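Hi Y.,

Following your request, here is the sequence exactly as I used it, all 327 residues.
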Amino acid sequence: MLPPILEEPVGKADKLRQALSAKQEEFEDLEIYYRHGISEMQGRILHEMRDKPVLSYETALQNQNIAMALHTMQRRQAYIDNLKDISSMLSAAGEQLLYLKRQANINALVMPVTDDLDNESLAGQINEAIETHTARLENIVFGIESDLMEPLASIWNRMASELEKVGTSAAVEDADKEMENGINVDISRDICNGNLSRKHLLTELSEETAICLSKWSGKDLTVNGLKHLSPKAAAHMSRWQGDWLCLNGVFTLSADAAKHLFQWKGQRLSLNGVARLAPEASGHIPGWTGKHLELTGLTDLPFETASNLVKWQQTGGKFYIAERLQR
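Below is the corresponding structure, written out as tokens. Let me know if you'd prefer a different format.
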């Protein structure tokens, strides 16, 4: 138990540390936002340059789209630099408050065996730190100083150097993939923090994100941006306790993924992006306890797959396929 003189200061320090941490997370989210913005502008420049020779800086500025993208990158990088400074300040403040709290706890532990403790002085240090860091928190200035921004020529020369190494077409493909990965990471982070507003934009599903989605309390779950469903992700998704799961962007379904997916206890499953369902995958359908299965994107229907669908239908299920495959 803390000495009475330290209880109030330590309590206030804990609350301030929480406020500092929340503000730091807010600025970290902003930094991610600006980094994605820079990647987006880089992509625009690369698309503008596709299959063209690398331009000089002066020539590049004559292209309105490139010039606008460079100015946007310049501003966003300046914001990121400012955010880093603020985050470092917030981190240092939180570490100092944590250090003082630990010192208070150490004093509490050794009090029974020594009288050589100056708790009054420690309380004063804590209160002083609280006052200092509260003022800093309340007076954070977020902005940019134009004279500290990276010159446009420097930004362009860095991009031009990369373009000369790999070529414009390859750079466009790499930038598109990098942007997609960054967006997936960002959306996954939101999902695991309880914000599913952009779940439909996911194109890849990690195990961690699948676990987060499986805990969602909603009844309908639409993740139609997914292109692929791994067996491990399918295993986690099979634990979701909703009624209708839409995965209409998935165009292939492996036997291992199907094994897990058809263990899901929901009622309706939409897989309208799957073009062909191999017999090995369809073999798991007859044991599914759901009621509706949508496969309207199938382009062919192997005999074994058709047989497995019919077996499942005979247990009370209903499947939907293209009309031409029903003949």
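The CA atoms of residues 41 and 232 lie 35 Å apart.

Thanks again,
Q.
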